Amino acid sequence: MNIYEITDLFRGILHTTGVFNFQWKLIIMWGVGSLFMYLAIAKKYEPLLLLPIGFGIFIVNFPLVPLMGYSDGHAQLIEVFYHYGLEWEIIPCIIFLGLGAMTDFGPLIANPKTLLIGAGAQLGVFITFTGTVLAGFTLKEAASVGIIGGADGPTTIYLTQHLAPQLLGPNAIAAYSYMAMVPLIQPGIMRLMTTKSEKRIRMRQLRPVSKREKILFPLVTVGIIALLVPSVIPLMGMFMLGNLMKESGVVERLTETAQGALMNIVTIFLGISVGATMHADSFLSWKPLFIFSLGLIDFGVCTAGGILTVKIMNLFLKEKINPLIGSAGVSAVPMASRVSQIQGLRYDKNNHLLMHAVGPNLAGVIGSAAAAGMFIAMFD
Amino acid sequence: MKNHTILMPALFLMLFPAVTIGEDFLGAPVVPHIRTIQKTETRLEILSDLTHDDALAFYREALREEEDIKFRDWKDATYIEDDGNREWHSVTISKEGKEGTEVVITKDSWTWIIGTLILRYVGVFVVLLLLFLGLKISGAFISRAIAKMDVKKDGS
């Protein structure tokens, strides 16, 4: 064996390592992944999702890693999670099953007029659509970017996967990031849009809701949604099944699994799959940056839309609603409700708005799903 | 077999010459037609002697490789819609023409985009409003049923 053969041997080995295939832009993505992991670990911002997403971004941005692609005709590890979980649109629906099994719709049933706040808070979704089209996105892409303002992660993922899968990574990350930043984004808008007297409006304690009403709620809701926006039934159907399981009280084992183990398993797969879609080659362009900046405006307009809806409703209502609960219409359960509670207490130490804000908060989940259904119906 | 491979494209060229000579309106292919009913900067209405199915086949072939195009089968027409960023928005091929098949091509316009967005936003309100009514009615029904049961219990 001469010196050339030995050199070739070493070169051959070196070419199978990542070092020889290194690109500088990968370092930027390591930074992005690390930032999300930092936000999750140090700041506790949506850690259940931002941690696996951050790790997914980090790990997929090394050269030659067999994670998101095919080798010898076989799908690689995260490609399998992505294909069966997201491309088949299964994970968002299973997450909705778990969310339904965890949700108490009592506050919404007790004060159903707060449903309208959930509709009003979708304002940003439709305004952002226009801005995104102006920026040169296709109509399908615009719809998937617009839904970020609804602040509902699974709905954003479901709609994006359906209409513009190429934007899945940036859209999902923008949605979850802004959901995590609700306490930073919303208070300023809430203060700006309400007067001192409005902030101090006290709302009557909610009536108790019977078990029968709670059992009937998922059936009535799923029936009406199925009739009006059938395209979103995979999401809403699972949401209401989870809730029916919880409220019926006869399938405790199933309810526990749906809200616990099953939810946790799919969250891991969701996080790492979404993160893994963000490879440097596709992420480092103007589109994701545009989505992040427009997503912030979108979220702000949705918050304003919810507050504005309450103000309009107050023109016609005898018993006024505190507009501080309007911001909770953007979904982001339960963070947005907590923000309403904290802001309410700042102006009146005995004014507890938490349970009142849960109503529009849950209405926001239904509202954003309805908006997603409208978009799916528009393009399917 | 060889003859077929030569004949088929030739037949297509004879049937649909517009594809080959590149006649278009705002970038949308225009089906061979006998009369132009109306032509403005934003709308073209023509009357074609092709049947609805032939006109549809023409557009399916002409737009075969284009992305973000949707063919919707309506009761009285086939509606071809562009979901991309093309200059034209839709091609409507009527199914009920007496003298021929009417084809309408429209320009992509902000009126359509804003109009559909407003309608869909209102749609979200309608969905939640109906849900509100559903809850009100079912709530009232249950309350009444519970009240009746309580009266019965008290009576017995």
Element-by-element helix/strand order of chain B: HHEEEEHEEEEH
Tally of individual domains of chain B:
2
From the helix content, strand content and strand pairing of chain B, which structural class follows?
alpha+beta
Shape of chain B: elongated
**Shape designation of chain A:** elongated
Share of residues in strands of chain A: under 5%
Order of helices and strands of chain A: HHHEEHHHHHHHHHHHHHHHHHH
> Which residues of chain A form runs of ≥5 with pLDDT under 50?
none
Strand content of chain B: 25-35%
How many domains comprise the coordinates of chain A? Answer: 2
Number of helices of chain B: 4
Number of strands of chain A: 2
> What is the tally of beta strands of chain B?
8
Radius of gyration of chain A: 23 Å
- Kindly report how far apart the N and C termini of chain A lie: 65 Å
Sheet bearing the most strands of chain B, described? 6 strands, antiparallel
> So how many helices of chain A?
21
Q: Which parts of chain B are unreliable, with pLDDT below 50 for 5 consecutive residues or more? A: 17-21
Describe the structure.
- The complex is a heterodimer of chains A (380) and B (156).
- Chain A has 380 residues and is an all-alpha fold.
- In chain A, 71% of the residues lie in helices and 1% in strands.
- In chain A, strands 1-2 form a two-stranded antiparallel sheet.
- The longest helix of chain A is centred in the C-terminal third of the chain and has 31 residues, at 286-316.
- The model of chain A has no long low-confidence stretch (mean pLDDT 93).
- With 156 residues, chain B is α+β, with helices and mostly antiparallel strands.
- Chain B folds into two domains: 24-108, no CATH class; 110-156.
- Chain B is 49% helix and 26% strand.
- Chain B is built from four helices and eight strands; from the N terminus they run ααββββαββββα.
- Chain B has helices at 2-15, 17-21, 52-62, 110-155; strands at 24-25, 28-29, 35-39, 43-48, 69-73, 77-82, 88-94, 101-107.
- In chain B, strands 3-4-8-7-6-5 form a six-stranded antiparallel beta sheet, with helices on one face. Chain B has a two-stranded antiparallel ribbon with strand order 1-2.
- The longest helix of chain B has 46 residues, at 110-155.
- The N and C termini of chain B lie far apart (90 Å).
- The interface between A and B is medium-sized, with 39 and 30 residues.
